[in-house]
Design a protein that fits this description.
With about 280 residues, the chain is mostly beta strands. The protein has one helix and 25 strands. It is globular, with a radius of gyration of 17 Å.
Length: about 280
């Protein structure tokens, strides 16, 4: 059974499980939230940007935040202050973020809502623990959520406009190679479970919003129906946490955003599941 944990978000994104609580970005409110099992929310950071922004953590526990329109990767210090971890503005706007078990931060971007015919402007950047930056993937059709396997050997990224989950091998130096289709399904903010399947918001074959558990190759293993569009999900404490909002696919981006800023419909939903989370984030 699916239950409502919290209502009143603008657009919840970047679902994470960290230190025994559910965390997310509350787009439109400039907030990073942590929410406990009773639905009590705490603002953990305020991000001076619009949208998008995404979150993850370095191995030492410091929070990283992508400030998308500004092209910055921010880091939260012990004082709570957000400082620049890496200036990536020369590459363009940023979207999603994942940090692997070695402290490598992968940041994607180039998410053009109206690319030219045949254009795939998306990219993935690697920010290593020593601060160096390099571009490790190109030609992505609106890169979105990413996951990395527990052994740090494979990265999977959702190409929302390409309608596929795309996988890469990860080398010891963090480079990506051997691009391939992991599953022929679109995705958004996603997570991996201990069986190697991926949970992601998506759509049923009949076009209804749902959170899907997908096996490598594309088989749908489980489906959790959703009333509104799903944006991201994660696993924690035996529970699938899902972020939804009343986004209308037939309306322009600005129309949706204006409506949701006026009447927030964002929710955190929960659904019990037996297979625990694995990998990163």
């Amino acid at each position: 059974m699916t239950e409502v944990l919290l209502e009143g978000l603008v657009i919840g994104e970047s679902a994470r499980w960290h230190d025994g609580r559910f965390w997310c970005a509350n787009w439109g409110a400039q907030e990073v939230l942590a929410v406990d099992a009773s639905g009590k929310r705490e603002v953990m950071a305020r991000v001076p940007t619009t949208i998008p922004f995404s979150i993850d953590w370095l191995p030492d526990g410091r929070l990283l935040v992508t400030s998308g329109p500004e092209g910055l990767l921010l880091r939260q210090e012990s004082s709570g202050e957000l400082v620049t971890h890496a200036d990536l503005s020369s590459y363009g706007g940023l979207n999603e973020l994942v940090v692997d078990g070695r402290g490598n931060a992968y940041v994607n971007g180039g998410c053009d809502f109206q690319p030219g015919p045949g254009e795939r402007p998306g990219f993935i950047l690697l920010v290593t623990p020593d601060g160096s930056v390099r571009r490790v993937a190109d030609e992505l059709a609106f890169p979105n959520g990413m996951v990395i396997t527990p052994d740090n050997s494979t990265l999977v990224v959702a190409e929302s406009f390409g309608g596929v989950l795309t996988a890469y091998d990860v080398a010891d130096d963090g480079s990506l190679s051997n691009r391939r289709v992991w599953a022929p399904h679109p995705g958004d903010g996603m997570c991996m479970d201990a069986s190697g399947a991926i949970w992601t918001p998506g759509w049923t074959p009949s076009g209804e919003s749902a959170c899907l558990r997908i096996a490598e190759g594309g088989d749908i293993l489980d489906t959790v129906p959703l009333e509104h569009a799903g944006f991201a999900c994660t696993l924690g404490n035996g529970t699938l946490h899902m972020l939804t909002a009343d986004w209308h696919l037939d309306e322009p981006f600005d129309t949706n955003l204006d409506r949701l800023l006026t009447t927030p419909t964002g929710r955190i939903l929960t659904h019990r599941t037996s297979t625990p989370k694995a990998g990163y984030p």
